[in-house]
Specification:
Distance between the termini: 18 Å
Number of domains: 2
Largest sheet: 6 strands, antiparallel
Strand content: 25-35%
Number of strands: 10
CATH architecture of the largest domain: Sandwich
CATH topology of the largest domain: Immunoglobulin-like
Order of helices and strands: HHEEEEEEEEEEHH
Length: 206
Amino acid sequence: MSAGHTTAIVATVLAAVITAGVSLYIHFDSPEIDVSGTVSEKSKTDSDEKKSTASPTINIADIFITPIDTKMATTFFAEISNSGNEAAKDIQVTLDFGESTIKECEVQPISIASPVESEALSIQSYTISELGKDTSIYLNCAINLPYFKKIWVGGGNIQLEKSIDYDAYKELKNGESLSFYEGVLRTIVIFFLSMTAFKIIGFLFD
């Protein structure tokens, strides 16, 4: 094998290693935004019971709320999904808006949801008769303030309750945006790694 060919192989491998290093840095340093992964989970069974059975897996897959207070009603939206291996039956979804007052709520598909009566003007609950695997239910409410206290999902045949409060939601939203300083730092790191790679490759070919 010629010296030139060996040098080319070394240069290619070195460039690939540096590229992989940059990719891993960006991946592990980036915030992971996943509502369903940050909700609190509480087992209905004893902690020492580790039976592996087919069961639904309920996630609070998405949340949106108008970020500021306006003269118009604030929009609240949530998606509850089932990523498990069987249908979730007779579960309950509770939206507690705390200081906010509910003006109107809608759920889709409406055929599987039955509203639970409540005297509180800030709480809306639904009993979901059956949420099939790999399907979602969507909740949309008009409220008077851009705030909710807590979303809770539980009951029925699910093994883990799921919930998220407003503070956790705000943390997630703030983590989605990369700060200016983090962006500058990553640009500098990538620049110096690239320059180092070019210098080493240039030295090898010189």
